């Protein structure tokens, strides 16, 4: 990962994700893009069209650039002189947050999008104000969700959680994780979430994956852990809270809209509860 884009609304609540992204860029030797989407009426469902005066847009644009510049200076000023200093590029756009972030990520060929989640954001709002939930569905490249209050620490253990019932779909994401783990000299744990009444037949799939990954990538720090849980999200939350991992990863699969409306996806449930950053690979990135 050589190009990281972090989305921010320039509030104090969002700054933790920007700081995390900057330190991650330091550890990876990557370039950092800080992206701000101007808050316009297009974000708000309405029956009529509201035309804003041009001077309002000009003021918003100027304020955005000023705050981005301050944030950039704050990050570089806090860096230790003997560490890698990432190049920081500030970008902005007008429109719906997901559209702006995806457009800028594509324009700058970002390998990763970083977004902060807030303590009061339970991923339950379907209309406005819930950019985390929307980005989980819409992200066109891997998405890293950073919980409120997260403090960056060197990534030494990464866990990928799944029931591995769609292992073929997940193989590409796991391969990218192995590359990341190798770059960081980190351990990768394949966490197999099993229901209590399931036998170990699925473990053969994991062993085949493990063998192929080690053979193709030459990274020996890959292991398997079985977690018994009736629900994948609960099993992953247990894993995040009770084992010493620095990053949790999974593949997000799209669900029927009605199911999401009533229950929410496993990824969205997990994003609202995990105490460690959650790296989401959207399944549609790998579907043919």
From TrEMBL:
Gene3D superfamilies to which the protein is assigned, alphabetical: HUPs
The UspA domain covers 1-147, 156-281
Taxonomically, the superkingdom here is Bacteria
What Pfam families has UniProt attached to this entry?
Usp
Q: Which InterPro entries match?
A: Rossmann-like_a/b/a_fold (IPR014729), Universal_stress_UspA (IPR006015), UspA (IPR006016)
Family according to the record = Belongs to the universal stress protein A family.
Provide the protein name: Universal stress protein
Which source organism? Mucilaginibacter ximonensis
């Amino acid at each position: 990962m050589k190009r990281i884009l972090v989305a921010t609304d320039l509030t104090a609540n969002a700054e933790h994700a920007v700081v995390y992204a900057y330190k991650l860029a330091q550890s990876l030797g990557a370039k950092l893009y800080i992206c701000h989407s101007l808050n316009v009426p297009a974000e708000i469902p309405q029956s009529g069209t509201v035309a804003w005066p041009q001077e309002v847009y000009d003021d918003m644009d100027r304020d955005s650039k000023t705050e981005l510049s301050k944030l950039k200076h704050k990050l570089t000023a806090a860096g230790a002189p003997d560490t890698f200093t990432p190049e920081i590029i500030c970008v902005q756009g007008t429109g719906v947050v997901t559209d702006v972030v995806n457009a800028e990520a594509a324009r700058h060929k970002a390998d990763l999008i970083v977004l902060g989640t807030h303590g009061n954001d339970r991923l339950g709002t379907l209309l406005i104000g819930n950019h985390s939930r929307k980005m989980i569905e819409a992200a066109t490249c891997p998405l890293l969700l950073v919980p409120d209050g997260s403090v960056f620490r060197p990534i030494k253990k990464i866990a990928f959680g799944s029931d591995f019932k769609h292992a073929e779909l997940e193989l590409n994401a796991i391969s990218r994780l192995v590359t990341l783990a190798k770059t960081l000299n980190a351990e990768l744990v394949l966490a197999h979430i099993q229901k209590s009444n399931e036998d170990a037949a699925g473990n053969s799939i994991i062993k085949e994956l493990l063998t192929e990954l080690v053979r193709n990538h030459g990274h020996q720090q890959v292991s398997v852990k079985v977690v018994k849980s009736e629900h994948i999200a609960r099993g992953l939350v247990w894993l995040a809270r009770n084992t010493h991992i620095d990053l949790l990863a999974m593949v997000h699969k799209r669900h029927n809209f009605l199911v999401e409306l009533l229950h929410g996806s496993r990824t969205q449930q997990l994003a609202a509860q995990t105490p460690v950053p959650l790296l989401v690979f959207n399944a549609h990135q790998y579907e043919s």
